[in-house]
Amino acid sequence: MSYIEKKYRLKINEIFEDLPILENYLIELLNRNSIKVINEIASVCAKFNKSINLILKKYYPEIKEMKDKLEIKSFLKFYYELIAKLTDLVRNIINFQKIDPEYYDKLIEFIDNKETLINGKYKTICTKELTAFYDPTSRANLEKIISEKFLMKSKQYFTIGSLEEEIKKIAKIAGANQVLILPVEESYRKELESAESIISYTVLDDKDKKILHKIGTELKQYLESKNYNVVVKPSFIITNAKLFSD
């Protein structure tokens, strides 16, 4: 392991070790079951996002050891989902000025189950992702398919996996840093009566409206090509496609 890799691994550890302080504060806020603390919750979410982006942009690319990559990636998966859930909470409260109290309890339960999720669900997912990425045959096949897609220069989308996988691939090709598929809340059915799923996505620079617009447009075109209905919002999509949630 190189000097830089060791140094950056320690930096990543330091960030992860500091985040539980934010988690505890977040739980305190959620336990209040009040929309009055939404600004504080949004601030906590922004701090999580800043820390995770720092790892992704500066430190993680230098990590080469597969064991370390797996551990870091599993932690990142947890925080991706936490950020998505918090973003959804903030968005709902801002739009509708209310939230089901059960939502707070589910978020607290999610945070309390952090270790179990990281060592179970997320480690399993990340193991598969890393295996597929670094396996020469799998990677060569994927790169060939992606190359062919761009050479076609059309909006005829390819299918090499489940609908959920395709959605995430398209979003990431368009510039998404993180993509999460979430169950639809009843409030979203005011936007789309037949809504079944939410596709939430983030970019490294959350002020980059062009990339967000591009992701939304690409996903809309893809889903509509499959005869699904879509409503595009600034950082998420509402659709009547029945998707498996992350």
Feature tags:
about 250 residues; alpha+beta; A middle domain of Talin 1; 2 domains; globular
Mean pLDDT: 84
Low-confidence stretches: 152-161
How far the N terminus sits from the C terminus, by CA atoms, comes to: 33 Å
Sum up the overall morphology in one term.
globular
Q: The CATH topology of the largest domain is what?
A: A middle domain of Talin 1
Strand order of the largest sheet: 1-2-4-3
In short:
By secondary structure, the chain is an alpha+beta fold. It has 8 helices and 4 strands. The chain has 2 domains: 3-127, A middle domain of Talin 1; 156-239.
Please describe what this structure looks like:
The structure is a single chain. This protein is α+β, with helices and mostly antiparallel strands. The protein folds into two domains: 3-127, Up-down Bundle (A middle domain of Talin 1), CATH 1.20.1420; 156-239. 65% of the residues lie in helices and 8% in strands. The chain is built from eight helices and four strands, in the order αααααααββαββ. It has a four-stranded antiparallel sheet with strand order 1-2-4-3, sandwiched between helices. Strand 3 (230-233) and strand 4 form a beta hairpin. Helix 2 (38-59) packs antiparallel against helix 3 (66-96) and helix 3 packs antiparallel against helix 4 (101-112). The chain is globular. 27% of the residues are buried. Mean pLDDT is 84; it is low at 152-161.
